[in-house]
Design goal:
- By secondary structure, this protein is α+β, with helices and mostly antiparallel strands.
- The chain has a domain at about 45-100.
- It has helices spanning about 55-65, 90-100, and strands spanning about 15, 20-25, 30, 45-50, 70-75, 80-85.
- It has a 3-stranded antiparallel sheet, with no helix packed on it. Strands 4-6-5 form a 3-stranded antiparallel sheet, covered by helices on one side.
- The termini are far apart.
Length: about 100
């Protein structure tokens, strides 16, 4: 049985001496390749919506943007904001998502 680790204890990979491969504590193979450099993201403006519209909007945006741009959202009280890269017309996508469900924008 595997012991659980505390929240503050980092997850450590172990090296298999037989083939020098790394495994996470959960048995997942860890690649030995270096991480690629992080991609710079130019975030667009946040679009505010009602909290109960979040699932509809995120689902619609996820289906109507290419797979590359990141989509971010945050719940804050009775509202939420959605954000993606600046070259995505997020305001239009949110309006389309809400129009599909009978909401207004």
């Amino acid at each position: 049985m595997q012991q659980s680790r505390s929240k503050n204890e980092p997850c450590r990979a172990t090296r298999n001496p037989a083939d020098q491969s790394f495994r996470s504590p959960h048995g997942v193979s860890v690649p030995q390749a270096p991480m690629p450099p992080p991609r710079e993201i130019e975030w667009g403006e946040r679009v505010w919506i009602d909290r109960e519209e979040t699932q509809t909007v995120i689902g619609y945006v996820g289906r109507h943007v290419p797979p590359d741009p990141p989509v971010s959202f945050h719940l804050q009280g009775g509202q939420a904001w959605v954000q993606t890269e600046s070259d995505v017309d997020l305001e239009r996508l949110v309006a389309e998502a809400l129009a599909d469900t009978g909401g207004n924008r």
